[in-house]
Amino acid sequence: MPAPTVEQLEAEIAQLQEQIRQAQKLTALGELASTVTHEFNNVLMTIVNYAKLGLRQRDQAARNKAFEKILAAGNRAAKITNGVLGFARNRAPGYEPTDLARVIDDTMLLLERELTKYRVKVDCYVQPTPPAMANGNQIQQVLMNLMINARQAMPNGGRITLRLSHDAESGTVDLLVRDNGSGIPPDKLPHIFDSFFTTKSGPDASGKGGTGLGLSMCRNVIEAHHGKIRVESSVGKGTAFTLKLPAIKNAPTPVIDLATATAATSAFASPTERA
Ligand SMILES: Nc1ncnc2c1ncn2[C@@H]1O[C@H](COP(=O)(O)OP(=O)(O)OP(=O)(O)O)[C@@H](O)[C@H]1O
Ligand SMILES: [Mg+2]
């Protein structure tokens, strides 16, 4: 048999990387299942309790109030299922103009409960940016990985800062994910993007992690986007990852949707209230 050509080997590597990405996504989905089930249970309890209340009440205003609560709970449940389905689905395989603020919202929706449970607050600063040339589904997977890593680096709770901004000079849309967790020792830092490099002894209490594939998948995805992923870390202070993705040139910068931006932030403003 003739030896494979460089092109054949490259195609094979690309195919294997895609398989790793798919496997990683399935793992993430499996892990989300328990979060989503809990979330649904809460929503159902709300619906059942307000339905009972509404049935007991004779007063029309009180009944209307109960209906409103039931409607809000139902809408929340629908948003969560849509979020999970969106993540599970392979949207368009290629790259298209993508609003990264949307990707942040979608990711927060899926991780909200878990972050609340671990007393992790999220400060989200979304500046007006042009769309990025990206695959929203893959970037969501990257962001989920970075946020779960951040959460795992703060076992006693802490703070994640998300910042979306436009770097006009480099023509990129930049997404910063910073935590105030354990940080990464300088001797480990050069290895964190290697496949199977992990310092975690196994899955954590939420059944997450420890394979060492998260960051290697992130790097593959970002490089395929012709973007950059950078890390800065300081032991005891925390870690910051920055994604730089190519911005669409000459795209009008949208007027920021304050409603979405604040909703995303306030969802995390008082985690204890929502726990
Ligand atoms: N935000 C962070 N703070 C501290 N250490 C981090 C952070 N992100 C990554 N690391 C370090 O980099 C290693 C590799 O991360 P990576 O996401 O690739 O694998 P993992 O989280 O160990 O396992 P997996 O993501 O496959 O479940 C981690 O084990 C951890 O030591
Ligand atoms: Mg990880």
Structure characteristics:
275 residues; alpha+beta; Heat Shock Protein 90; 2 domains; 5-stranded mixed sheet; two-stranded antiparallel sheet; 7 helices; 7 strands; disordered C terminus; binds adenosine-5'-triphosphate; binds magnesium ion
Can you walk me through this structure?
With 275 residues, the protein is of the alpha+beta class. Helix content is 51%, strand content 17%. The chain has a five-stranded mixed beta sheet. A two-stranded antiparallel sheet has the order 1-3. The chain has two domains: 6-87; 95-274, Histidine kinase-like ATPase, C-terminal domain (Heat Shock Protein 90, 2-Layer Sandwich), CATH 3.30.565.10. The protein starts with 5 loop residues before the first helix and ends with a helix. The chain has helices at residues 6-56, 60-88, 100-117, 136-152, 214-224, 258-266, 271-274, and strands at residues 96-98, 120-126, 132-134, 158-167, 172-179, 228-234, 238-246. Helix 1 packs across helix 3 (100-117), helix 1 (6-56) crosses helix 5 (214-224) and helix 4 packs antiparallel against helix 5. The protein has seven helices and seven strands; from the N terminus they run ααβαββαββαββαα. The chain is globular and about 80 Å long. Magnesium ion is lined by residues 145, 148-149, 209, 214. Adenosine-5'-triphosphate is lined by residues 145, 149-150, 153, 179, 181-182, 184, 192, 197-200, 209-216, 239.
